[in-house]
Amino acid sequence: MEPKFQKGEYVVYGTSGIYMVDDISEVSFSTEKGQLFYILKPLSKKHSTVYVPLNKEAAVAKLRYPMEKQAIDDLLVDTRDKSIDWIDDRNGRANQFREILNAGNQQNLLLMINCIRARRVYLSAMNKKLSVTDENALRSAEQQIREEFSYSLQIEEEAVGDYVRAGLGVEQNMQS
Length: 176
Hints:
CATH superfamily of the largest domain: CarD-like, C-terminal domain
Mean pLDDT: 91
Structural class: alpha+beta
Strand content: 15-25%
Strand order of the largest sheet: 4-3-2-1-5
Helix content: 40-55%
Radius of gyration: 18 Å
Low-confidence stretches: 172-176
Distance between the termini: 42 Å
Shape: elongated
Number of helices: 6
CATH class of the largest domain: Mainly Alpha
């Protein structure tokens, strides 16, 4: 199988962030002898390595190029008038949020962030707080967006929230 990505390129791997293709070479593990792998180094965890076998379609399908600035700007404009509804059933909501997080679709992540943040404001007005599960889902979604957008826009992660808010034309979205 001919590699789609080349050594030195940056890719997004599933929902786990931005990686540099450090090498494409044969690696022998106890279960796989002499298979060709993408050897990925994450931007966020310098001492980690991820091995993606080129002969495993499902694993390779999780690799994609990071979004470009224009695609991010278009996504933000397209997301402005959309929303997802809060699900009152805790298990149903947790399942929906887990599906969104696992799929890694940036628009759905943004919609989920807006949904959770709106709920946080609503609850705060009643001196209540979000559940730990909802807070964790929010943090995970924000991190997925923050890392890719920071890389693609060449801005600090702390500036991504402001960029997203401006692009969406909303006050409540991601913390900077």
